[in-house]
Design a protein that fits this description.
globular, alpha+beta, about 25% helix, about 40% strand, single chain, Multidrug-efflux Transporter 1 Regulator Bmrr, Chain A
Length: about 180
């Protein structure tokens, strides 16, 4: 084997190892914590978003995150998905994006409003992983199937308490209400 091929193979191995280390450090192998929730309620201060999950949703979450960054000590970035992008044409999504708070804030942001989301019964999954590496949706639906639970396959609630922590909650079918 020539010296050039040894260098190329070594470089490739180093890249693969670095990629794996990055994946693991962002929670790629972390376990999901799942539990059934009864009677939970979330107050979100945010705004509606309608658009492409592939091209615009990440930007909308990032813009909302920067707007609510001064309120991080009072809540965390959250979104309630009215639609499931994987079940629609062109990955169109309708989501209410904002900050989950325990009580109303004194200051207001132009264009934001409060909405309360109540779940009679849901499955909540938590994973210490960057959201791109999270397996929570799959884990929640597998857990529901193995326990003969019927979940709403359209609506979901997502929270991001920190950069490497993802919480997803999916209500049982017909067990969610929204009020302004």
């Amino acid at each position: 084997m020539s010296k050039k091929n040894i260098i190329r193979i070594s470089f490739f191995v180093v890249l693969v190892l670095l990629g794996f280390v990055g994946y693991v450090s962002m929670g790629g192998l972390s376990e999901s914590e799942l539990k059934v929730q009864q009677e939970v309620e979330y107050l979100i201060y945010g705004q509606d978003f309608k658009g492409s999950a592939k091209t615009e949703l990440g930007k909308a979450f990032k813009n909302t995150d920067s707007l609510v960054s001064s309120y991080k000590d009072r809540g965390d970035l959250a979104g309630f998905f009215y639609t499931n992008p994987s079940k629609s044409n062109n990955y169109l999504v309708e989501v209410f994006i904002g900050i989950r708070v325990d009580e109303k804030l004194e200051e207001e942001i132009d264009g934001f409003e409060y909405r309360t989301f109540k779940f009679e019964k849901s499955i909540q999954g938590k994973q210490d992983a960057f959201f791109l590496f999270s397996t929570l949706y799959n884990d929640i639906f597998q857990y529901a199937e193995s326990n003969s639970y019927v979940l709403d396959s359209i609506q979901a609630f997502e929270r991001y308490p920190s950069e490497n922590e993802t919480i997803i909650e999916i209500p049982f079918k017909g067990a969610v209400s929204v009020s302004k």
